[in-house]
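job 3f2a | input accepted
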Amino acid sequence: MKLWKGRFSKAATSSADEFNASIEFDQRLYREDITGSIAHAKMLGKQGILTDEESRLIIKTLEEILADIEDGKVEFTIEAEDIHMNIESILTERIGDTGKKLHTARSRNDQVAVDVRLYMKKEIAAIDGSIRALMDALEKLARQHVDTVMPGYTHLQRAQPVTLAYHLLAYYQMFVRDKERFDDCLKRTDRLPLGSGALAGTTYDTDRDFLAEELGFASVLPNGMDAVADRDFAIEFINCCAITMMHLSRFCEELILWSSVEFSFVEIDDAYSTGSSIMPQKKNPDMAELIRGKTGRVYGDLMSLLTICKGLPLAYNKDLQEDKLPVFDAADTLKASMDIFTEMILTMRVKEEKMEHAAKYGYMNATDAADYLVSKGIPFRDCHEIIGKIVLYCIEKGIAIEELSMEEFKSFSDKFDEDIYDKISVRSCIEAKKSKGSTSFDSVREQLEALKK
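job 3f2a | predicted structure (453 res):
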């Protein structure tokens, strides 16, 4: 039976009931809904709006309902529409009219708003744990590969030699910022909407500060209309998920390239790869590809909620029933992606010799050769042209710059001397970097040391 049946002279059709109901997906908020209702019942009892006996009975029964749900003893119905009305219906079935008093001084509008915020606080904490685990994995790998030399790329072309640790720490810093974004998002999520009523507050002498303390919220939202009508905190949350997925996707793209025969920098463990149904030789990086693909899915969640909210007049509108699916999906997808990614990188094999070979034969010491000539008093633009001609000469000869004879070096500039060979070895190029935050071995060790703090 509908809890709002009094105003209506005709029952909804079964198709309308099915279309209107959200219990199929919002039932996962059962714990948050009961937690909010228990706090509300305590407040009603404290304020004398309910008797102590009524408040205690409601709380006791809600706790029993929670236990029954978790034991699989409760079946939700489409007829009751959503998780709020399902639980209230069960409560009323068990304790009669006293159960109907729970909704005093409350609307489903502020009830669902508090449920979503409680859920998101829990999800942010879980995501924080997953990001920390990923950062720990990156730090562990970086410490193992401080001396592993590899090509650094721009435009997917070999650019300058770096270390694998340096490359990994670049992603580490991206995930640091992702964590900071979620921490910041929590500040705007951790505000209590409960007690706002449908939009205008309530005539009852309620205590919203008590509710905030009971439910662990940092503060109370000051405007009831805003509290029930906006979902910007949820949009921000999905945006944080989308940015983190973007960083994961970029890393996955590199692992997909690196694990190809053409690069052969890493080998992803068999446990995180798949084969082909027709080609026996194939070993596919499917986990990395799936994360890359699921990134688009989370982008879709973000656009979905932005579009849902873009034209809503104040205050609550039924459109906001659709806010939960993108929130649920973005959180689930991000957590699963981060966790499998962390496992995958901790088990992959790094082919250090392949990486260093690619760094040596990619003419990536060209900039350092130009800097060498600068130190001999030649303007950088002239040095750039001289080294460009040397690179072209080496490509035509099929040799590395460091394989040129001194006679060949001198044919391009008489400023070259025997010390050029020390200056342009791959490891010398890395070690020569002096700026803070560079790829030099000492700088990378400093960056790793800073992580301990």
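job 3f2a | The longest strand covers residues 157-163.
job 3f2a | closed
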